[in-house]
Write the structure tokens for this entry.
Amino acid sequence: MRLLIVRPQPGADATAARVAALGHEPLVHPLLATEAVRWAMPTARTDAVILTSAAAVRHAGPAADALKALPALCVGAATAAAAAAAGWKRVETGPGTLQALLDSAANGSYHRLLHLAGEDRTRVRIPPGVVMAVVITYRAVLLELQAQPAALAATGVLLHSPRTARHFAAEWARLGGARAPLTLFAISAGTLAAAGPGWRAGHIAALPDDEALLATLAKAG
């Protein structure tokens, strides 16, 4: 298959390498770019740091060095790897969503949390007994799809977030692309729903990570 990859860099190139290793043809056209936001360290005591994306780790910069003695509670394996590479010594890999991570923390010993987050955040329920401060370390900027649909001739699209899925659908429509020939491979049910109806088919990853997303390619036959 020829697969369009629209996630931000550097993740787009990493996914492209995995796609090529599986025998498919990757087309990298990021529709989001992340950029750092200046932030200040909260003064409140913190038991652990919540990390929900590698971008948050990357853009936190040297200001986060003071936090690296604390446990890093990471939403998934990719974020955990980024945290370890950035210098966190105590890294815990969570169950794949921020809500599940918070619920797990509430049942453990972490009750005062600091979330290093992106500007575009998912709504969550804060469990009783947990206090979470949020600081924004980065924002994601939408990019236009530069290539025409006919030139891409893709048979499938890999979608890594609801925001990217929604923006891809809008860009595809702006350029006059037909939905019917394209199969969508989405990292979550919410991501697939954000792309809207009318596509050839849609497949949802069993877990919200790149490995599980690429495993759905086999469903396309």
